Amino acid sequence: MSSPMEVVERDPGELKAQVDIEAGKEVEIVSEENGGVEEPQPSSDLTEDKIQVAVEVCLKPTSTAGIHEVRFAVERMLEKRCLSYANGPIPVPADDILLVENVERICICEIDELVDNQDVLLFWQVKPVVHVFQLSEEGPCEELSADGQPSSFNEWILPAKEFDGMWESLIYDVGLKQRLLRYAASALLFTEKGVDPLLVSWNRIILLHGPPGTGKTSLCKALAQKLSIRFSSRYPQSQLIEVNAHSLFSKWFSESGKLVAKLFQKIHEMVEEENNLVFVLIDEVESLAAARKAALSGSEPSDSIRVVNALLTQMDKLKNSPNVIILTTSNITAAIDIAFVDRADIKAYIGPPTLEARYEILRSSLQELIRRGIISNCTDDDHKILPSYISLKDKLAQGVDDTETVELCKQLLGAAEACEGLSGRSLRKLPFLAHAALPHPQSCTPLKFLCAMINTAQRERSELPD
């Protein structure tokens, strides 16, 4: 991870010169500090092909400022300041009253997904795209059925406070999350532009499959949250409908069909509003295949297969609505219904975390415990940033292994290696279990904590079923 972002005030004359450079004009930039020697200009490649970088601006719950007003203020702030763009927060400028009163945080997102082997982008390489949003605090809305039983779905207004930070906390191989974002952008664009689906086919259906505990459901929710922010200028309202496929099958004959009808009636009402972006999350979709096979074998009533067919038919009808994306998950890859697999545009396997992912998960957990004071920091720097997996590998390759931070990260790497075979869900619980196993947690250093975490990981692995 790169160092925290440096924010430097830019001289108006320098700003104008930079704008002229970006416009293709020949401008000499002269620095007084080096005795009037001409500064090298950015290469034409950097000025011609700028990288779009997402800048997310979260408003305070009490903010009443307009979205466009805040966006303009942030864009103006970015133009006036010289930034080296790296993942992480940007300080809200204290001299801007509008931003101070209304903005909770400003954050640069996903630089590592956009640039290979480079942690920082310089300001002339970047075209910032500002997304302003305010979190909904309403929580999930669960309707009751006619018989008083819980409904077969939950509903969230996005972006929701419950999902805030979830996207950043999910760590996978580089490229997966960006692939999902780009897919959604293309799917919505093709629909908006009226591309003939008979000539170019797409269904706006994503299938994430893999073993339990790998974060598939969380990734779907985080993706819906992220897309609701990124497309807020086109769709001011966004909603998430979460459905558990098991809940669509009733023990009462013919009731299952009514559950499916009620569910999709609700969805169709939502998508009728053109400014409303709707996400439908169907969890454990492999149960559809199990019901179909059981019905065909005669062990289940024909009502089950009618429900499955009705669900697939309703999903096909949603193709005509440009403002809906269907997100599905499955824990049993081999059990997914082939009729459903054919409908999915993206079929992404979410497997156990790799060594790099395990290191990054544990690193983020360790930094959080140090930041909160649960683990005592050996140095005076309470906000010490531990190097990323790639940075650590570079340091070790260069022979830089004598610093306290590198030694700590080498121990952290050992902990990540000891966690092979554990799911992402287990890795997130591991620091808590390690702390609970400490005999004297009040005076625990990071190195002692990592030793305890390695022992806890070994115990957790030994208790895994064969």
From TrEMBL:
This protein's major location comes to nucleus
| Subcellular localization, as worded in the UniProt entry | Nucleus
Going by the entry's taxonomy, the superkingdom of the source organism is recorded as Eukaryota
Give GO MF terms, alphabetically.
ATP binding; ATP hydrolysis activity
Residues of the AAA+ ATPase domain: 202-354
Q: Which GO terms describe its biological process?
A: meiotic recombination checkpoint signaling; reciprocal meiotic recombination
Sorted alphabetically, the keyword list is: ATP-binding, Meiosis, Nucleotide-binding, Nucleus
Q: Does the keyword Nucleus apply?
A: yes
Job description of the protein:
Plays a key role in chromosome recombination during meiosis.
Q: What is this protein called?
A: Pachytene checkpoint protein 2 homolog
What organism, scientifically named, is this protein from?
Kalanchoe fedtschenkoi (Lavender scallops)
